[in-house]
Design brief:
CATH superfamily of the largest domain: Periplasmic binding protein-like II
Order of helices and strands: EHEHEHEEEHEEHEEHEHHHH
Number of domains: 2
Mean pLDDT: 95
Strand order of the largest sheet: 8-7-6-9-5-10
Shape: globular
Strand content: 15-25%
Radius of gyration: 19 Å
Helix content: 25-40%
Largest sheet: 6 strands, mixed
CATH class of the largest domain: Alpha Beta
Length: about 300
């Protein structure tokens, strides 16, 4: 590792988002750190290489994947920087041509999700359990991908879709009753399960400590331990990049939160949901997720 007088180059995996554009373009610069950005069209396609191969020094990572990675002792430290956050209630849809379904109707139904461990799925199951009485173990979850962590095995109530099947096509064909589809539905015939999901997202965020966290930033343990100056510089750089982002006003429901306290409630919720849904063997406290350097960041 270079001495403290040399610029440290970090192999970095980061998607293309407005809140990091100034960093990726070189508008925001550093005398301490140089980022070697991987060519990443879709960040979540690289999460397996982070937790299975420890391929990058610095990376965004889905928060549910990080919680599992910590459970299995993967050598990454969490930085209190939200890279991607969003409401979750607009991501689950159904096909009205196959019959009407209400948010309270999912127990006993077949519901598709890319992977059982997907962070969006963890949020949706948790929120639907709290607000609509869904028992996630009574839903017939149909998945299409393996977990990011090789060590993890899906619970026995999870079903794998037959080889060659596609999530949206199964929903359109009536083979599943609903599906967690993500931000944009792939077909106009599919409709959100919640009639006004954006209003529901806002109401939930206002009463639950902010917009849910999807991805945060992680750094290799060895760098976090040996170079607190680098950690502080990364925090500064990402904050500067966020300030340069004019795509959103950064108001009270800003998803891009910096520091432990602004992220605490969202982290408490996702930890609780992940534990209840059998993704992690025990509930971490929020403070367990961060080391002393991270706790000192304002």
């Amino acid at each position: 590792m270079p001495s403290k007088n040399e610029k440290l180059k970090l192999g970095t995996m980061l998607g293309n988002y407005p809140n990091v554009a100034a960093l990726k373009s070189g508008q925001v610069k550093s005398d301490l750190v140089e980022f070697d950005f991987a060519d990443v069209p879709v960040a979540n396609k690289f999460f397996k290489s982070v937790v299975r191969e420890q391929k990058f020094d610095l990376s965004e990572l889905a928060i549910a994947t990080f919680l599992q990675a910590k459970s299995y002792g993967k050598p990454y430290t969490l930085l209190p920087i939200t890279i991607l956050g969003r409401g979750q209630l607009h991501t689950i849809g159904y096909n009205p041509e196959c019959g009407q379904i209400k948010p309270t109707d999912l127990n006993g139904r077949r519901v598709g999700v890319r992977a059982y461990t997907q962070t969006t799925g963890v949020w949706v199951r948790g929120i639907f359990g709290d607000q609509y009485g869904m028992d996630f173990q009574k839903v017939k979850w149909v998945t299409f991908e393996d977990p990011h962590l090789a060590e993890y095995r899906d619970p026995p109530f999870i079903q794998r879709a037959p080889a060659g099947k596609e999530l949206a096509k199964m929903l359109l064909d009536g083979e599943i009753d609903a599906a967690i589809l993500g931000d944009k539905f792939p077909d106009l015939r599919l409709k959100p399960l919640i009639p006004d999901p954006e209003a529901a997202n806002r109401a939930w965020a206002e009463s639950h400590g902010g917009i849910p966290i999807n991805h945060m930033l992680v750094i290799r343990d060895s760098i976090a331990k040996s170079r607190p100056d680098i950690v502080k510089e990364i925090f500064r750089l990402f904050r500067e990049a966020r300030k340069a982002d004019k795509s959103s006003d950064g108001g009270g429901l800003d998803p891009y939160r910096f520091g432990i306290e602004p992220n605490r409630r969202s982290l408490e919720l996702i930890i609780d949901y992940a534990f209840r849904q059998k993704l992690i063997p025990r509930k971490f406290t929020v403070d367990e997720l961060f080391d002393d350097t991270m706790r000192a960041l304002a």
